[in-house]
Design brief:
Radius of gyration: 52 Å
Helix content: 25-40%
Structural class: alpha+beta
Strand order of the largest sheet: 2-1-5-4-3
Largest sheet: 5 strands, antiparallel
Number of strands: 22
Strand content: 25-35%
Distance between the termini: 146 Å
Bound molecules: adenosine-5'-diphosphate
Oligomer: single chain
Number of helices: 18
Mean pLDDT: 90
Length: 605
Amino acid sequence: MPVNNPFLQPHNIIENLPIATALFEGIEMKLVSVNEAMLKLWGREKSITGSRLLDFMPELKEQKFPGLLKEVYETGNPHYEYDAAVYIQVEGALKEIFMDYTYNALKDSSGNIYGILVTALDVTERILSKKKLQESEQNFRNLVLHAPVAMCVLKGPRLQVEIANERIFELWGKKPEEVTHKPIFEGLPEAREQGLEEILQHVYTTGNRFIADERPVNLLRNGKIETTYINFVYEALYETDEKITGVMAVAVEVTDQVEARHKVEEAEERARLAIEAADVGTFDLNLESHEMITSARLDTIFGIEEPADHRDYVAKVHPEDKSVREKAHAEALKTGKLFYEVRLLTDNNSIKWVRAEGKVHYVSSKPSRMLGTMTDITSEKNIRQQKDDFIGIASHELKTPMTSLKASLQLLTRNLKNELTPAAAALLNQSNSSLAKLGNLIEDLLNVTRINEGQLSIHKTKLNVAKLTNGCCNHIKSTGFDIIYEGDLDLQIYADMLRIEQVLINMLNNAVKYAPNSKTIVVKAEKLPGFVKISVIDRGPGIPTDKIPHIFERYYQADNKGVQFAGLGLGLYISAQIINRHGGKIGVGSEPGKGSTFWFTIPEE
Ligand code: ADP
């Protein structure tokens, strides 16, 4: 029995130690002495003194401690461990506690081991709070890594990239290894000198949040510097003691949206400049409430100074032209497009012409707004009038000498027929054909004058389509073109033979002039309810789609590069007027590169 053990004699030494201490004896680990601190840690009463460890703490059986104690008892080597997890039975449940502990073998005077001194320190609280901290750090890290927006955490005064998610790498145009654990502006040198260093430092030192809205930032992406637009927040991160430890950045790239908006703004600006340059007024009419927003230029054109109602603008239209406007509006609601030209009443009784052009906007297929422009076309109209006046006089004056020239040439041809040298005969022939062309031009001009003056006379009779086509198509054959007839040529129309011939000849001549490689021209007659439709189809170059709407306008010519004797751009205009006077319709369908189909309809009766 050991007698010289310093702990055995004065039990009270153990009892008074501030650290949890217990003394076990023998290989069976009989508890001989234990202090309050240890009993508290175990959750046991003093009465366990004298019993064996596994008797009063059977829950240790499955744990490593009995084995370790045995080892220390047998080898004499001390054992210690920090932060060890121990499961202790407390009030019917196993409780996890953490301890720093030591096992020291006790020897008697002859060096034999007779017991083990156990000391322990309860570190549960420290471990749990450390675990909690780790957990919350992990949660935070996960939050950043899996955030649906670009996020990163920059730590320390050098703002080192600590955590960063996939989205922010994409935004930076960098691989994780290029930036992670590096000061941000070292990993991302292209972001320097754009004011961001100062902002980040300011957030880091003051803790004041910084919010950027659509800030342009130049970044190196796909091998080149790109200007990106970014919404972002820099938020200071604090340690528990209120000390700033870093900055968190949350960013959303809005480059596409900003660029799309810039494009719209630029387009608006271009449209505004174009409108200003063209001296055009604009309007936006609400078709339900009849509220109208107008530009300053439009008000000037209308001579309106005060804010006015839609009706005030309408009231300015010349009474004789009101129906033109109303018809155009009704048409616009059907077709979506507005076009008309009317005179306006002015304060000084002068005549002012305006052209309205617009488009209808629909909401769930109901017309909701009409947007458009108004142009002052007074001087255009005046110039056209002057041109028409001049053409009227000139063509009239040309007609008399032309007629006598024609008579002289005819006389010459008839009388000298047999005496002319072949060269002189050819020259005379050429003169005759040039004179015929000149005659056609003058006739066109006179027709325009007649149309303008409302004097285009129409004498209708019952006509057979075959008779009409025969009269027109013969001369085409001499040009080397083949005419193919399709459909029913036996149909009857009620029309002015000479005028309709003029229309058909113009279409055929155009096919020869503008589709020289076509070689065949199809003339087709079809019966429609109450009408006969006649079409002239060529396989020529066709007409560009954007030119088609204007093709029947006066003096309009599409692209006539390389065309000899292109004419004056009056043929189709006159044709349209003639067909109009017959109550028919005229039109063209054309596919560039494939050919054109000019057609018109004439009533049967
Ligand atoms: P003009 O022949 O005197 O120029 P038109 O009014 O007969 O006048 O024709 C107007 C324009 O339409 C022509 O200048 C030409 O550009 C185009 N055009 C007419 N017919 C054809 C056609 N068959 N193929 C291609 N373009 C045509």
